TrEMBL record:
Residues 201-223 are annotated as: Disordered. It comes from the Bacteria. GO terms for molecular function: oxidoreductase activity. Coiled coil: none annotated. It comes from Micromonospora orduensis. This is Nitroreductase. Transmembrane segments: none annotated.
């Protein structure tokens, strides 16, 4: 009789490798996937990969940390769906700022329906930059997304007055970024033909012309080939991820909140598009800080909405780096993998 491996007899290194593989689906700034997972027999380390940090567009590394935080949350969900609970130490080594987290198996745990739903969402989540439909997100759905984010960090849903302010700030940020030759060169690299294979954005996921949105979407500096309908995202909801501090640990946690919100949104058919330019330009960062009215520091703006059924299905998948470029299993004896 064939014996199927279960969580009970699978070795931690195998579960860690599977979790790191699932985390490869996480969203990241310009699809840079700025992470490296190092698997050990008894622990899993997450490192930042500074060679894939946007030095002009993200000099502080905020967007890199948000991306790595999203990958960390994806790995946590994959472990939970595999029947493991893990202890996570964030930025465990004061003298190694690139070691972002270490996960150690805590115990086996019953697999919940929620963990399975979120693990499935990891496989289908994507960024859809086309306008959303005229349908509003049901209140209960919005509450579920906010609750998921707030279990890991904080999410503030903007009022319509605040959305108008966000729109003009995003417009100003786009103009300032377009006028910065170093940011423009970085964008050209990550969206162009010379980009690292398996990373960056292919034309197929970029709208063929600017979309009609209340808050201007990111200008990628070139048209893509993704067909865009005539819709306007009037029914979209805008929100800000925020928190108490403005340092690496805060951004990492905010990335986990981003993943939690996005995976929950995916399970209920809500599309999410992050908008980071408005946070990275200092002048417009202050506008967002003002919009938060003392609640905290802004990390990322989000557009939420119901994908337009007229658009005939999701956009093509954005590619990913080869597993060997983002997961290092060399510390694990081969009989444990
Ligand atoms: C921190 C962060 C910032 C992002 N900023 C933007 C943005 O400003 N505009 C945009 O269209 N997508 C943005 N994205 C989405 C990424 O481009 C997307 O996740 C990546 O290309 C991978 O594609 P996928 O989400 O379809 O898997 C952002 C994602 C993250 C994690």
């Amino acid at each position: 009789m064939r014996h199927e491996a279960t969580a009970v007899d699978r070795l931690p290194a195998v579960a860690f490798t599977d979790a790191a593989t699932a985390a490869g689906n996480a969203p990241s700034i310009l699809n840079t996937q700025p992470w490296l997972w190092r698997v050990h027999p008894e622990r899993l380390d997450l490192f930042a990969t500074r060679s894939r940090q946007l030095t002009a567009g993200d000099p502080q590394g905020r967007q890199l940390m948000l991306s790595c935080g999203a990958a960390l949350h994806h790995a946590r969900i994959a472990l939970a769906a595999d029947g493991w609970s893990a202890h996570v130490a964030r930025l465990p080594e004061a003298n190694d700022p690139d070691l972002l987290a270490t996960l150690v198996m805590h115990d086996r745990t019953p697999v919940t329906m929620e963990a399975l739903r979120l693990a499935h969402a990891i496989r289908i989540r994507h960024t859809d930059r086309r306008p959303v439909s005229e349908r509003s997100i049901p209140e209960a759905g919005l509450r579920a997304i906010a609750a998921a984010a707030c279990a890991e960090g904080s999410l503030h849903i903007l009022s319509s007055d605040n959305v108008a302010d966000l729109g003009s700030a995003a417009g100003r940020a786009a103009t300032m970024e377009a006028g910065d030759p170093q940011i423009a060169a970085e964008l050209t690299y990550w969206t162009g033909r010379a980009r690292l294979s398996g990373a960056g954005l292919p034309d197929s996921v970029l709208p063929e012309h600017p979309t009609q949105t209340t808050v201007p979407s990111r200008d990628f500096g070139r048209p893509g080939t993704l067909p865009v309908g005539a819709g306007h995202d009037r029914a979209a909801v805008y929100a800000l991820l925020f928190g108490d501090g403005d340092g690496p640990q805060d951004w990492l946690r905010a990335g986990e909140a981003l993943s939690a919100a996005w995976l929950t949104a995916t399970t209920i058919g809500v599309s999410v598009v992050p908008l980071c330019g408005v946070v990275e330009v200092a002048a417009t960062w202050h506008t967002l800080r003002h919009l938060l009215a003392g609640l905290g520091h802004p990390y990322l703006a989000l557009r939420l909405g119901i994908a337009d059924p007229e658009q005939h299905g999701p956009p093509p998948r954005t590619p990913r780096l080869a597993v060997t470029q983002v997961i290092d299993t060399s510390a694990v004896p081969s009989d444990q993998l």
